[in-house]
Amino acid sequence: MSATHLRGASERGYLDLPWGQVHYRRAGDPSAVPLLILHQSPLSSATYEPALAALAAHGLYVVAVDTPGFGMSDAPGEQWSIPDYAAATWRIADALGLGKVHLLGQHTGAVVAAEAALTARDRVNGLIFQGLPLYDDAERAEKKAGYAPGYRVAHDGGHLKTIWDRVYWLYPRISAESASRQVAEYLSVGPDYAVAYRAVFDHRLDTAALAGIPMLLLHGGDDVVARMNDVVQAALPGVPLVTIPGGTDFVAEEQPEIFAKAVAEHVLAHRAARPEATFKPIYTATVEVQGGRAGSARSLTGSLDLALTRPADRASGDTGTDPEELFAAGYGACFASALGVVARRERIGLDPVSITTSVTLGSVPGGKYAITAALGVSAPHVPQADLERIVGIADGLCPYSNAIRGNADVTIEVLGGSPDSAVL
Predict the structure, then answer these.
(1) How far, in Å, CA of 338 to CA of 13, rounded?
(2) d(CA 93, CA 99)
(3) Pair 245, 39: CB distance under 8 Å
(4) CA angle 409, 411, 415 (to 5 degrees)
(5) I need a labelling partner for 329 at 20 to 30 A (CA). Which of 36, 92, 147, 311 fits?
């Protein structure tokens, strides 16, 4: 079997997510150090198929996903932004059962990985950029105007030659087998294969905000984005650069053992980045509780001073509250603020918006207790699709969501400008 085949020997599967199915391939022991790989556009996770076994042999649990709309993953119903792709990355990670991970991204995938790290720093042990495109405004505008013009399907198959010529224009040194796979990947996306490119050209990455996250620049010496090394290193001072001599953009399939060794060295060196290396305190609230669920809670400032009562003991007219109500209030307020941040960034007017939060206490096997949460977000003046999209991004931004992710079941019901609702 060709090393550049779309299938390969790794385990493959699908995830069911709100926008459709996501295809992934993986290798290694799920209990090992996790590495999540995001490919370049408009290709697929097949780029990394030849390196997956080598990465697993170095003690990694590696998952390479097909970006929504590429490879064998379903496309969202609208043009996504980089924050949308970043939010989807964490939904994919959640569906895979991944907690804290290393992210490896190439080109478009590198931009998505960086934005994903910024929205959920607590879930990232480190970043590997296999070519990070940092365009200036002039090149951004030039590329947006005509970098990926698309193709028109022709009865004589002329569009296949158009794609073939484009692949070899970009990568004149790759094998015919690799080019053949890429033609199939272009065809899987369709004539408008520039959707993720447009997201990159419209996005300005805050590289300064990445400071404190362990990072590595790693790519083939002849990678097309290698021309940006000076710009990238200036934007990420002190981040080491490793180039693999003779490697193109597809060094993972050309030199899988060397690529895997370089990746694993970085991942294993930062397998447990200390929280204090990335956590920057903003505000601390201190509340003293006496008497447990039947006692009282008073904040250090005195602005909160409440009686606590057990729900089962609460009498009519009793004004006491309980930990679940307090958590629901905090979660709802936090989520509302995160949603407001996203809405302003996306230039979407939310008002009026309401968020209802329910927190349920229950028992689980082993004599233990757990909670679940349900959020209802209603913004009748926002189109349903737009509201679902920004709620998904807010879920990746909200510190309450991030704090309980993977530890508590959370459902979010979204009700926008249509009568339909969707559970995320």
Answers:
(1) 32
(2) 7
(3) no
(4) 175
(5) 92
Enumerate the β-bridge partners of residue 241.
217
**Which phi and psi angles does 377 have, rounded to 5°?**
-115, 120
d(Cα 324, Cα 362) in Å, to the nearest integer? 11
- Contact predicate 338/330, CB 8 Å: no
Q: What is the DSSP letter of 284?
A: -
Give SS3 for 150: coil
Angle at 424 between CA 63 and CA 62, to 5 degrees: 5
Cis peptide before 383 (omega within 30 of 0): no
Q: Which two tokens stand for residue 143?
A: 């590329």
Q: How far apart are CA 51 and CA 67, in angstroms?
A: 18
For residues 332, 338, 340 and 345, what is the CA-based torsion angle, rounded to 10 degrees? -170
pLDDT of residue 421: 44
* Cβ-based neighbours of 64, under 8 Å, separated by 6 or more: 24, 25, 26, 36, 37, 39, 45, 47, 48, 49, 52
Over the chain (424 residues), the average pLDDT of each successive run of 10 is 68 94 95 96 96 95 97 95 96 93 98 96 95 94 90 95 95 92 95 95 93 95 95 95 96 96 95 54 88 90 89 81 94 93 87 93 88 94 90 88 87 81 48
Write the single-letter amino acid at 119. Answer: T
> Residue 245 class from Cβ within 10 Å (0-12 exposed, 13-18 middle, 19+ buried)?
exposed
Give CA–CA dist 275/203, Å, rounded.
28
Pairing outcome for strands 368-378 and 410-415: parallel
Beta strands in 8-144 (DSSP E): 11-17, 20-27, 33-38, 60-65, 101-106, 124-130
Cα separation values, 101 from 113, 150, 187, 335, 389, Å: 11, 35, 31, 24, 24
Cα–Cα–Cα angle for 260, 264, 267, rounded to 5 degrees: 145
Strand ranges for 194-253 from DSSP E: 215-220, 241-244
Angle ∠(276,282,288) on CA atoms, nearest 5: 95
| Residues β-bridged to residue 64 | 25, 37
What phi and psi values does residue 60 have, to the nearest 5 degrees?
A: -110, 150
Measured over the CA atoms of residue 69, residue 108, residue 258 and residue 176, the dihedral's sign is positive
Structure tokens at 305: 């001073």
